[in-house]
Amino acid sequence: MIAGIIFIWMATKRITKPIRKLVDMSEKMTKLDFSDKYESKTSNEVDTLGEHMNHLSDTLESTIGELKSANATLQQDID
């Protein structure tokens, strides 16, 4: 019985840890902090989601940088 409890605990932790990492990562992204990246360890749906979150993070960071640059150029044109 103890072995079963330990097995279930370990299996649950293995499933929830990557999901918690993605939750933390998405929370940082809402604050425009794109520094956190998900590291894939296997090839399952959660890791695929993590890879897509990394791509989304990179794209958002790049796009926001381009918008800031364009905004600065427009501001100089106005002044």
What structural keywords apply?
about 80 residues, mainly alpha, 2 helices, about 0% strand
Description:
The structure is a single chain. With 79 residues, this protein is mostly helical. It is built from two helices and no strands. Helices cover 80% and strands 0% of the residues. α1 packs parallel to α2.
Short description:
The chain contains two helices and no strands. The protein is mostly helical and 79 residues long.
Q: How many separate helices?
A: 2
Structural class: mainly alpha
Subunit arrangement of the protein: single chain
Percent strand: under 5%
Radius of gyration (Å): 19 Å
Largest sheet: none
List the helices and strands and how they pair.
Elements: H1 2-30, H2 45-78
Helix pairs in contact: 1-2
